[in-house]
Automatic annotation (TrEMBL):
The keyword Magnesium does not apply. Substrate binds at residues 155-158, 227, 272-276, 280, 343. One of its GO terms (biological process) is UDP-glucuronate biosynthetic process. Gene3D superfamilies: Cytochrome c1, transmembrane anchor, C-terminal, NAD(P)-binding Rossmann-like Domain. This is UDP-glucose 6-dehydrogenase. Its EC number is 1.1.1.22. It comes from Silvibacterium bohemicum. Belongs to the UDP-glucose/GDP-mannose dehydrogenase family. InterPro entries: 6-PGluconate_DH-like_C_sf (IPR008927), NAD(P)-bd_dom_sf (IPR036291), UDP-Glc/GDP-Man (IPR017476), UDP-Glc/GDP-Man_DH_C (IPR014027), UDP-Glc/GDP-Man_DH_C_sf (IPR036220), UDP-Glc/GDP-Man_DH_dimer (IPR014026), UDP-Glc/GDP-Man_DH_N (IPR001732), UDPglc_DH_bac (IPR028357). SMART domains: UDPG_MGDP_dh_C. Residues 336-440 form the UDP-glucose/GDP-mannose dehydrogenase C-terminal domain. Pathway: Nucleotide-sugar biosynthesis; UDP-alpha-D-glucuronate biosynthesis; UDP-alpha-D-glucuronate from UDP-alpha-D-glucose: step 1/1. The keyword Glycoprotein does not apply. Keywords: NAD, Oxidoreductase.
């Protein structure tokens, strides 16, 4: 049986909280640290600030014995063998990652160290951050043999983060010493040994005890690059298929057939080849920009990433043009909108292409009735309700008397609408689907004027 490790996780945002809950689920003792007292209080009382499957179950299961919440970083550092830094690294004006939170936390940890610790960067950070953290800690007078810095990037998707953590395709750990490598391998042993998957209460997923995730031990710099390069590559795949979808539209081919054809090549793979209205969220846009900035700083030409970004912007505009072509003018028109989150399954609206499109429609005078299963409260903070913008409680209310219905996020429930009801609810049966949730032939047969992305109308 693997030995429990005492772990502190600094930052209880989506990465920190999911990591903390999953480490506890793997048998470790976890202290979750956040400097926001009200958040700590809420977590202590059983509240959960983010919408994430399985997170409530795991936190409830472990709250009393394996996870504690505090704002006291000093004591958490002293009581832990490994301290994971999972604070935000927002995008700065230059496109680079703003590392001031990481810097502040590293200094505070340094002032608290009283024995050997492994300090692990979990936030998405540019290459060399590890080196900076090490310097900050040394500058605070901590002797070299009292700490190591490791890099352990995460590859969690919002909405499926717990399953992605416990059933990871791979675990990447960058270290510069054997001692740190050993502790990190102990932390992940319940997963890499397959032990976790034998537990009756294990969260279900694709990996099992015979197929545990590989533990990839790398240099710290390689681990940092793996994170940025993975996100940039996935964003590139999306931009690639989006351009292919535009070619499909020009020649009358179906992008889904093309994506299946290319994705069946095991060297390419079928995932992240869904054409749509462009990628969004708190990761891809920020990480592509940050990685491009890293390359620029190093004098390496990575204009490919600039193209990835501009294709992504263009894709939103093309969708907007498609809506315009279907409706001619917007002033005074009523549009139903399904989906405000940057993708289905989350309440996150950061960099949401759906919101960009809605904002543009409002600018041009459209009246909108929007429905999202989870993101409405957050959307209201950005676009307050008004005579032009109504937030409604179900998809049919959004469609009621509308000149067209736009599908902008890929929530599963949007793919299961009662089409007959939808048809008589809309004023004109026009559906413009930015997520390709319906079969065009079926929609046409049912009397809709159905437009989607990269598929013949
Ligand atoms: C992404 C990565 O998938 C995770 O591996 C990574 O850990 C995370 O960023 C991060 O760095 O924290 P996430 O932003 O939650 O996860 O969302 P994704 O599911 O990757 O989707 C990103 C965007 O791409 C969404 O707007 C989605 O709608 C879009 N997308 C995705 C497509 O347009 N087509 C696809 O085929 C896939």
């Amino acid at each position: 049986m693997s030995q429990p490790v005492s772990i502190a996780v600094v930052g209880s945002g989506y990465v920190g909280l999911v990591a903390a809950a999953c480490f506890a689920e793997m048998g470790h003792h976890v202290i979750c640290v956040d400097n926001d007292e009200s958040k700590v209080k809420m977590l202590r009382e059983g509240g959960i600030p983010i919408h994430e499957d399985y997170l409530p179950e795991l936190l409830n299961r472990h709250r009393l014995n394996k996870v504690e919440f505090t704002s006291d970083l000093k004591s958490a550092t002293q009581r832990s063998q490994a301290i994971f830094i999972a604070v935000g690294t927002p995008q700065s004006k230059t496109g680079s990652a703003d590392l001031s939170y990481v810097d502040a936390v590293a200094s505070e940890i340094a002032r608290s160290i009283d024995g050997y610790k492994v300090i692990v960067e979990k936030s998405t950070v540019p290459v060399y951050t590890n080196e900076w953290i090490r310097r900050v800690i040394e500058r605070n007078g901590v002797p070299k043999d009292l700490f190591d810095v490791a890099s352990n990037p995460e590859f969690l998707r919002e909405g499926t983060a717990v399953v992605d953590f416990l059933h990871a395709d791979r675990i990447v750990v960058g270290v510069e010493s054997e001692r740190a490598g050993k502790l990190m391998s102990d932390i992940y042993a319940p997963l890499t040994s397959g032990e976790y998957y034998k537990l009756p209460q294990a969260v279900p997923g694709s990996l099992n005890e015979n197929n545990p995730p590989p533990f990839l031990l790398t240099s710290t710099k390689a681990a940092e690059l793996i994170k940025h390069a993975s996100n940039a590559f996935l964003a590139m795949k999306i931009s690639f298929i989006n351009v292919v979808s535009n070619i499909c539209e020009a020649v009358g081919a179906d992008v889904e057939q093309v994506a299946k054809g290319i994705g069946s090549d095991s060297r390419i793979g079928p995932k992240f080849l869904r054409a749509g209205i462009g990628y969004g969220g708190s990761c891809f846009p920020k990480d592509v920009a940050a990685f491009r900035y890293v390359a620029e700083q190093l004098g390496v030409d990575f204009d490919l990433l600039k193209e990835v970004e501009s294709i992504n912007e263009e894709q939103k505009k093309r969708f907007f043009q498609k809506v315009r072509a279907a409706l001619w003018t917007f002033r005074g028109k009523k549009l139903g909108v399904l989906g405000l989150a940057f993708k289905g399954g989350t309440d996150d609206i950061r960099e949401s292409p759906a919101l960009d499109i809605v904002e543009q429609l409002l600018k041009e005078g459209a009246h909108i009735a929007a429905f999202d299963p989870a993101a409405t409260p957050r959307a209201k903070e950005v676009i307050p309700p008004s005579a032009f913008m109504r937030y409604v409680d179900d998809p049919y209310e959004a469609a009621a008397d509308a000149d067209a219905l736009l599908i902008l996020s890929d929530w599963h429930e949007f793919s299961e609408l009662d089409l007959d009801k939808l048809h008589y609810t809309l004023r004109y049966p026009i559906v413009i689907d930015g997520r390709n949730l319906y079969d065009p032939a079926e929609m046409i047969e049912r009397g809709f004027n159905y437009l989607s992305v990269g598929r013949p109308a």
